[in-house]
Design goal:
This protein is mainly β. The chain has 5 helices and 46 strands. Helices cover 5% and strands 66% of the residues. Pfam families: OMP_b-brl_3.
Length: 769
Amino acid sequence: MKTLIFIFFLSFPCILWGQQPNRIKGSLIDSCHNPVKGASIVLMNRADSSQITWMVCKENIFELEYKDTGKPLLLHVSAIGYAGKYIKIDPTHLNLGEIVMMPWALNIDEVTISVKKPIVHNVERGRDQYTIPEWMGLQAYNLSSLLSLIPGLILNNENIEIAGIGKPIYILNGTNPRMGELENLNPRDIEKVTIARMPSSKFGPNAVGIIYIETKKQWHDYTRIRLKNQFKYTNVTNNQSSLFFSYKKNKLSHYLGYSFDYDPEKYDLRYGYETNIPEEDIHYSMFTSTDMYEKGKNHNLTYSTKYQINANSFVDLLYYFSMKNILADNLAHTDFFDEDQPDLSSHTLTDMKYKLHLANIRYDNTFDGKDRLTFSISCMLVDDKRDEALKEEALQTESTRMAYNQAYKNKDVGLSLDYTHTFEGLDIETGVSYGKLWTQSDMNYYTENNSQKSTSRTENTTAYLNIDHAIGKFHYQIGLRGEYEYRHAENDSYKKNHSFYFLPSAGMSYRVNDDLNFMLYYRRITTQPTERQLNTNVSYMNSYLYFTGNPLLKPTVSHTFMTRWAFPCHLSLTCNYSYDKNSIFQLTVNDKDDPNILVDTYENLKKSQELNLTLAWDRTFRFYYLNLNASYSQSFAKVPFVNQEVKYSKPAYSFYAMHSITLYEDIKLNILGSYTTTREYATTYSKESYSASVQLQMLLLKKRLNVLIAGNSLLNAGNIYQETRYKHTLMINKSNFHRCGITIGITYNFNNYIDEEKRKESEIIKRAL
């Protein structure tokens, strides 16, 4: 016993020494060796930027105490009027000496000129990375308005597209965004945006490009409230109101969001088609005029909670609920240009109720900053009920009336596991997912005492492997994705359907510098027919029209080649070439037994090819940003048209321009214009279109209130006109469905740090704009 006591007293000084806190020392000076006072100093974990300790340095000399945990550390120093600085901490050298702070303001003859930090651009692994300055996130009204100011991205109506490629999918902080996450994302929280034009095999066949969004690290506990309301007055008038609440305390954070949409839509549709078979002496024409009025109400509720287990792992839970009510009044008049068929008028009333429940739990862990494991489980329930009444009136016949109710219920369960391993310049991504969907539909005809029920079950399994390797300035990517789908349907002409296919891809890029780089990419995609396209069950529309499918449809195989050259002076050229075999499209043909009845069915087009070239250029001046895009597209599909000629389609040209002018420090004016010539692609012909929109964005009330006033499509080509021509059928679609009108939106942001001292510190670390 005496020996143990003696050993304890001998080791006691060592124990006390091990518990002594470490001290980081240093002093702050500017570029002219003047002391910098009132700075905020925050010590955090390097892996996830979670805060360990902090202090406000009243003088220019500081001493910060902390307990060593053995993990890599990062020190952030910021002061008003100076650029923030990150310093990696070496535990063996805790005396940092003099730290030089670079000013963000230039003093010339006692006149202060504020300098706005520009977007920082660099190229990494063939991807364009843009670091978003704070002022840009503050001024943006929503996510689309922020992304539209990033070179390489264009705003098409309300959708963001990658120039020369198309509509991308999004990845938020390295994971797939869940329901409602992107809509509720605050532009002020975005730190970095990366554009990937070579989708890895991790993503399915619909991914033509990826936009990676990284948000800022949250160092302090906080309470945030965000209010948003947006009103649009067009023929698709709607009002969107939302409230978002965020709360963070220690390792636990909560998010609650609610939105309400009111959408009254009113538009006209003109639809006609003609069948001409000379050898069989068949000629059939029909023209339908439809007046549509819909009024929809949509409630959305999102709740999410996140627990930060440690610096490298977290678990989060999300629940999403959506409820939609739609009332529709559809008036249609059909003229048959045939003496044997009388004209027909129909009136349809629809009352639809839609509910969706979605729950998702996710676990994410990063090992030593190199390996990452993400596991996710999701469950979804969709309940869709519709009551419809149809009244038909035909010349020389009595009126008929039909009322029926449709009910759809979908249940979906999904599992996914993703793992990433990083070597020196080599990233290996692999993962598997499994999903199971149960669909049950009931249709009851009240007037005929008839009911139809069907049940189907679909299972899908996916596995992928992607290798991404950077060797100096050269980078290559190889991926393979396999998908297996099993369908089982009751009360159907096909009982079982199995499909299995691969999606290989390969790409390479070479980076000379951030202004000059080259990229080449190839991808093979197999698209299976949907259940509706295969299903031969008749779905009633009216006495003369019904839908059917084709169980003999073949999968569509697409070969896509893309190359992109980025040149100095912000000039880039993108070239896309695609070769499709067995493309699936919908066609109106005569019924074999009764030529007077027209049937919408699905057929395979043997092959089609398309070439697309896009030239993009952007330039940023002191208060002016210009983004220009010009495209050329040519279809090489040989299609037998109505006149039985086989020919190539004419090329089409399109132009896009965005002008962004800073009228005042916090007032921005955007002018967007687009023009597309007549376009022919495979079986489709579309007339020329053009539009011009104006947006005024204002930041008010101490940068908390964002106001958007926009004129949408003030100049436009009028009605939409499109023809579909194939073999003996000509279909014509006309519509006044356009977006000409105005938009007024407001967003108010309220931030409050929970701790009094941290609230004071937040005022110190505000950066000069």
